[in-house]
Amino acid sequence: MEVRILGPLEVWDGGEQIPLRGSKQRALLAVLALKANEVVSNDRLVEELWGDDPPDAAALRVRVSQLRKALGDGGARLATQSPGYSLRLDRPDLDLFRFEDLVADSVGVDRETAASTLREALALWRGPALADFTYEPFAQASIARLEELRLAVLEQRIDADLALGRQRELVAEIDGLTSEHPLRERLRALHMLALYRSGRQSDALAVFASTRRLLVDELGLEPGPALRELEAAILRQDPALDLEAAPSPKRSILIAPSDASRFDDLLALGEPLARRPARELILAQLIDSARDLAEASALARERRQELQSRGVSARAAAFTTESRAADLVRIATEQDVDLLLIEAPPALLDDDTLRGVLLAAPCDVAAFVARDALPAPGAVLVPFTGAEHDWSAVELGAWIARSHDTSLLLAGPMETARDSSRLLARASLAVQRALGVAAEPLLVEPGAQGLVDAARDAALLVLGLSDRWMRDGLGRVRQEVVEHARPPVLVVRRGARPGGLAPPESHTRFTWSIAAR
């Protein structure tokens, strides 16, 4: 049996398509396929399928029974496993798994094989992922994540073809892609390089000029350093442009305080992250009233100049907004942002801007809850239970620890010491592989007080959101920790994009890696 989600949902068996009847049956399969080989709880399934209008307890069992009958195989693939169900699929049985495996196979091989393998991977897409669930709330984040993954791999394939000297065939393709994604700077860089290598220097420079106008008009931002450097190299006809590697724009960290008094708090977190390896900081001042624009612009410009004087690449923009959340999401999407740093009140999810950003931003989001006093030197503490957003919290915590040359502590509940220590070891090994940071395990008493006590001597607490935050909010334990822990707290939500803050050569599951898991 083969399940396909890279396009409309389909199930095939022995060359024949299996009919799936009813929207709920199809939605159930889609939710389980997105979490293939993981247990999805009954509560999560009910929430995803029926939202705020749940049926009686028997309705889910009926849908599961119907889906088992449709899939055949005696129901073995759709297993009951506390506290819910798991769809068991081998790597060849899900088109997304095959896509990931092919992309992994393109690493460390010759250029021709890499380009061919990436082309084979992209051929698995039959249109937008989960195209028949475009307007279903449960599918929105996954559709965005998968589309970002497709675009990232498409850019890799174009890179590979450029290295093979196929620039003339690529010009028209990239031109169409930049029309669909006009503010995606990486595509613009590839377009400029393909035109230049095709002997069209003036056209390549015209792409830069039009990109600059668009970025300034739409976002009030200048092009990033890589595009500016590429323009300069084209103007001087730099021989390095004839080499096989296309310049890649720097990825960015977006710092966007709503309260100017917290600008320096966020910069203290973001600046070290922008140094190893080099990242660009984007400083965004979004204000409600035009009369405050001059002051906001001056502050953003001052901070940018200070960063540049310390050798950190930075851009800054200030503008009025009617929707802070929508404009922050737009900047994060269009500027290849890895991480959005935003400050937040202790009552985290009561803030409309933060909630809107958490719902829609494609990148990792870290909400900073400050304290009145500056944190004392100390370790970075990350509570870890293996949940989805915990992985991004571990990654960000490790990156901060490495940037500040301090230790990283991973905390797990004492009551399940054996399982907790295994999980902590798994996270520690992944962090060491990706970032070279050793993490110390710390078993604590379950509940908020155990974490509050453990964080007493820490400099920073990095806390992943619950997997069910959209329904349950921050949750009692997390809320108590945010309110009562001594150090400042970063609350982290995992993003949709493949990448995150890990170096580009690392492939780990918590950066939503395109390598095999």
Strand order in the largest sheet? 9-8-7-10-11-16-15-12-13-14
Proportion of residues in extended strands: 5-15%
Number of helices: 19
Alpha carbon gyration radius: 24 Å
Q: Could you describe the largest sheet, including whether it forms a barrel?
A: 10 strands, mixed
Shape: globular
Distance between the termini: 21 Å
Arithmetic mean pLDDT: 85
Give a count of the beta strands, DSSP E runs of length 2 or more.
Answer: 16
Low-pLDDT windows of residues: 245-249, 498-517
Percentage of residues assigned to helices: 40-55%
Structural class: alpha/beta
Describe the structure.
The chain is of the alpha/beta class and 517 residues long. Helix content is 47%, strand content 15%. The chain is built from 19 helices and 16 strands. The strands form three sheets. The protein has a ten-stranded mixed beta sheet with strand order 9-8-7-10-11-16-15-12-13-14, sandwiched between helices. Strand 12 (380-383), helix 15 and strand 13 (408-413) form a beta-alpha-beta unit. Helix 1 (23-34) packs across helix 3 (58-71). The longest helix has 24 residues, at 140-163. It is globular, with a radius of gyration of 24 Å. It starts with a strand and ends in a 24-residue tail after the last strand. Mean pLDDT is 85; it is low at 245-249 and 498-517.
Keywords:
517 residues, 3-stranded antiparallel beta sheet, 19 helices, 16 strands
A few lines on this structure:
The chain has 517 residues and is an alpha/beta fold. 47% of the residues lie in helices and 15% in strands. It has helices spanning 23-34, 42-50, 58-71, 95-105, 111-122, 140-163, 167-180, 185-197, 201-219, 225-235, 263-273, 293-309, 324-334, 352-360, 388-403, 417-435, 448-454, 469-472, 476-484, and strands at residues 2-4, 10-13, 16-17, 40-41, 78-81, 84-87, 252-255, 280-287, 314-320, 337-343, 364-369, 380-383, 408-413, 439-444, 460-464, 489-493.
